[in-house]
């Protein structure tokens, strides 16, 4: 089991004074059929975001991609890949992630392959992982930072320990030539 993520959210009281609104384990945790654990920490639905609200913006059900004009902050724990996770198949995995695969496009390199119409900032907090692209891959380890611009990819942990990554996804415009392999939100 992965460790809980402490979430601290600040805001303002009715006098405009800075206060802590939330401090405790993030409650919106999903264990996917691939045993990947995703902890949703915050979601915005507009840009620039409204920072006056006191409601918990993570108290919702949402797929991997951010809402239009919005953003998502989450922590994802990737355990070493198991045979059962690979057997789940791409369609089942992307459906569970709230990603709609459209069109034919190129054949996926790996069952975990997906993409979102977003710019993603990924900060590896613990462990190591490989990010597979269409024809290449990059190995990332704790302390590495990745900026991903709507690319088709798969996260594959071939190691022996769980890899923990902090992700910030921000809605983006479709790049030129996108329709060769269409967006997933």
Structure keywords:
mainly beta, Jelly Rolls, six-stranded antiparallel sheet, three-stranded antiparallel sheet, 2 helices
Overall tally of domains: 1
Q: Which descriptor suits the 3D outline? A: globular
CATH domain topology: Jelly Rolls
Oligomeric organization of the protein chains = single chain
CATH architecture: Sandwich
Number of strands: 11
- End-to-end separation: 30 Å
Highest-level CATH class: Mainly Beta
Instruction: State the CATH superfamily name.
Output: Jelly Rolls
**Main sheet attributes: strand count, strand direction, barrel closure:** 6 strands, antiparallel
Helix content percent band: under 10%
Main-sheet strand order equals 3-4-5-11-6-9
- Please mark out the parts with pLDDT under 50 across 5 or more consecutive residues, or reply none: none
The secondary-structure element order is: EEEEEHHEEEEEE
Helix segment count? 2
Relative strand content: 35-45%
Residue-averaged pLDDT: 86
Helical/strand content category = mainly beta
**Radius of gyration, in angstroms, nearest whole number:** 17 Å
Overview of this protein structure:
The protein is mostly beta strands and 185 residues long. It has a single domain, classed as Sandwich (Jelly Rolls), CATH 2.60.120.10. It is 6% helix and 38% strand. The protein has helices at 83-87, 90-96, and strands at 6-12, 18-25, 29-31, 37-44, 71-78, 118-126, 128-132, 137-141, 145-149, 154-156, 163-171. The strands form three sheets. Strands 3-4-5-11-6-9 form a six-stranded antiparallel β-sheet, with no helix packed on it. Strands 8-7-10 form a three-stranded antiparallel β-sheet, with no helix packed on it. Strands 1-2 form a two-stranded antiparallel ribbon. β3 (29-31) and β4 (37-44) form a beta hairpin. The longest helix is centred in the middle third of the chain and has 7 residues, at 90-96. The two termini are 30 Å apart. The model has no long low-confidence stretch (mean pLDDT 86).
